[in-house]
Design goal:
Helicase, Ruva Protein, domain 3, Tetrahydropterin Synthase, Chain A, two-stranded antiparallel ribbon, 8 helices, 6 strands
């Protein structure tokens, strides 16, 4: 089917994908922008997975300070080349992620970093709650652990500017656009008068 230039433009603005990728996605989804967005996200996830084994040792360390200097964060966002590290869109992504960390204070970068004993503690707490409330134990435990991971792990959190998108999806979209592996290596949250919370993805 024929795809309008206006729809290609709208799809590019919402995804950052190239013109030919947008055209093909629209053709494959009968001109539906919503379905084309979903398709491009799937393709981006596949491309990101293919790049997982590549080294990402360039990047930036970004700071964010809020509440009159009483709250701040540092985050290290890596990519493969200095060329991408100096790109304004990559720098903006790092800034957004630093803001996300300051706003949500995650404990870990990814769910794989969560210690088994922490998950077991969440399961035990949920099991007790289920017994007290008379709820289905397994369903309650599953919901409790999923909610904990969504809150505690940066990659699993809803993006603060769009709750329909996770931080992982946000990064995956940029990986598809730039063609390089990207990762959050570590972050630190500073709250005046409190201890330091740190996550690291080795």
């Amino acid at each position: 089917m024929a795809v309008s230039a206006d729809n290609i433009r709208k799809l590019r603005e919402s995804t950052g994908a190239g013109i030919m990728d947008c055209r093909k996605a629209l053709e494959d989804t009968d001109g539906s922008i919503e379905k084309a967005v979903a398709l491009l996200r799937e393709q981006g996830a596949a491309k990101a997975l293919a790049k997982e084994g590549r080294k990402a040792e360039e990047g930036v360390v970004m700071a964010y300070v809020h509440h009159g200097g009483k709250l701040g964060s540092l985050i290290e966002l890596n990519c493969e080349t200095d060329f991408v590290a100096r790109n304004e869109e990559f720098v903006t992504l790092a800034r957004e992620l630093a803001m996300q960390v300051a706003a949500t204070s995650p404990k870990y970068v990814t769910k794989e970093e969560v210690p088994a004993e922490v998950i077991e503690s969440q399961r035990a707490e949920a099991r007790e709650q289920a017994a007290t409330l008379g709820r289905d134990s397994e369903a309650h435990i599953r919901d409790k652990v999923e909610q904990f991971i969504s809150n505690a792990c940066l990659m699993e959190q809803p993006y603060i500017r769009d709750a329909a998108v996770t931080v992982q999806s946000l990064i995956t979209d940029k990986v598809a656009k730039f063609g390089e592996r990207m990762r959050v290596k570590r972050f630190t949250v500073f709250k005046l008068g409190e201890g330091v919370e740190e996550g690291e993805n080795k």
